[in-house]
Amino acid sequence: MTTLPSSASSVRSGDGSSPILSVEDLFVEFRTRENLVNAVNGISYTVSAGETLAILGESGSGKSVSAQAIMGILDMPPARIPNGEIWFEGRNLLTLPAEEQRKIRGPGISMIFQDALSSLNPVYSVGYQIGEMFRAHGGLSKKDAKQRAVELMDRVRIPAAAQRVNDYPHQFSGGMRQRVMIAMAIALDPRILIADEPTTALDVTVQAQVMDLLKDLQRETGMGLVLITHDLGVVNEVADNVAVMYAGRIVERGTVDEVFTKPGHPYTEGLLNSVPQVEAKGGRLQPITGQPPNLSRIPSGCPFHPRCPRRRLGAEALPGRDCAGDRPPLRLVVPGREAACHYSEEVLGV
Amino acid sequence: MTDSQQQDLRSDEVRAGTTTGLGAPSVDVTDSRQNSLWSDAWVQLRRSAIFWIGAVLGVLFLAMALFPSIFARGADPRACDLSNSRATPSADHWLGFDQQGCDYLSNVVYGARNSLLIGVLGVLGVLLMGVVVGAIAGYYGRLTDSILARLTDIFYALPLILGALVLLRVGPSTGLPIISERGPGAVAIALAAFGWMTAMRLVRSQVIAVKSSDYVAAARAMGASDYRILVRHILPNAVAPVLVYATITIGVLIAAEATLTFLGVGLQAPSISWGLQIAQGQQLLRTAPHLVLFPSVILTLTVMAFIMMGDALRDALDPRQRS
To answer: What is the CATH T-level fold of the domain B52-67+94-321, as seen in this structure?
Structure first.
């Protein structure tokens, strides 16, 4: 089962400056009868109070699966966590009993999902669903829970909250539904909020509103925010740090400003080049060629090498740095920046 | 898009600065309450003639079961006079008399209580077994599901009437409460014990479908317990087809009760039931056909009433069936 290389106990003494959430060397695989899908392959990251960490990657890069592993809502089997530690406030979630884990969900770590309509139960009013957080975790009466639900709906700026508390999810617009979802997620003042593509299903004006709301709430409560997205614009606007994922690995990590101005991995570079720029209007976009890798057959060496314009194979490569044969580790390239590329310095131009 | 959704969008646009908030809303949204699944279904039901026929008949028979003396025109089903034996219908005695000279209208009316009681109790038993076993099998899956599903298959192999017949036959020798005395309770238990499998399969498949929905994942992410997820989130969304099935099953069980009684293992005289009346009347079919005719007609109408209500309910709860 879970191996604990660094410490056998599930309690760790925390010092004041330590991050709230710390993921260490996490692996997630899906075992089916036919094959083994390696969805997450050894990712590590930390989130501190008030920090916004963006996890950026295309579909199938393992970003949502890693979030579900943290929440403990993966269906096991088929999913399995062969290795890794998830530390939350000094406790390793992966070794906690299921009941203890459940108690952390909600007041400790909470999550909002991409599609708010399908994430809300169609048979209950939104007020009931928000209030359920207080009834289930805080033992409040129905009346008090409803009162708190109205307060929360006000807090996420749903107009006429008191009148709409008894409305059903399908009666709300997309943006308002996502606000309801956010209200549920922040109801118990979680220390960490994981937002799994919170604005993907919304149109642009509403997207900006929802992101502003999340930032405001973060300022008020000091929670750590993990923003999972494939939208570079959203990352640029709200995140402090960014971790770029490819084929279940983090390939680059740093502050948003630095990574976006000077990418240190060819994949990040490719992502930035494939976004339409106002200055380059009329020109051609440069997409990343090829397809994302099949996670049951991840290429050897650097998983990105079949699509990489800067790859060096065979005789071109430096000793021990063949892109097709040697897997590049995530390493510190310049201060404050890690990248998993043999030739990162070249990409950065240092 | 509904009015309230339009207002939401307007509010979002005003916030985002793409519109000014000055324009008065073109539609008054304050009093337009939207409908839930059930209120939509009710709107649909109200327009269904089949539902109304079923409902009127159902209410009529329910009233008959609750207040039989009103419908029996004051006659006592057990006050008999042999001189009236097998008399045909007349202005005073609408359905005539049976072989013992008892007023037949009052007998048929008093039979409604046992039939409905067995139908409703039986369906409650079917629902209890079906929902509990189906929900556990569907929610926990894997080995639990395999064991419960095979158990259900075993029960499926036994025909309802045959299973109930055997249980009622050996019932008196078991000495158990309820089962050992041949009352409506025993018949309802026998019918439920061999009739719950379809409900279980319905609930199981619904639970499996709902289990993988996003709102169940969301509820888990918010720290809801297994019990809360199953009872509050999955079952309410899985229950609609089961309710439809239950309504139809009331009719089926009433017919099955009559069959069992006709075969001699259901209720026993001096109980009053349609099955008993048909069984006794069939020996006199040539001389007094009305003794079979009236209980048969009323039995058919009762069964039909519940099946019609169930059909209409199924159509109303399925948005794809709406025109």
So the answer is: MetI-like fold (1.10.3720)
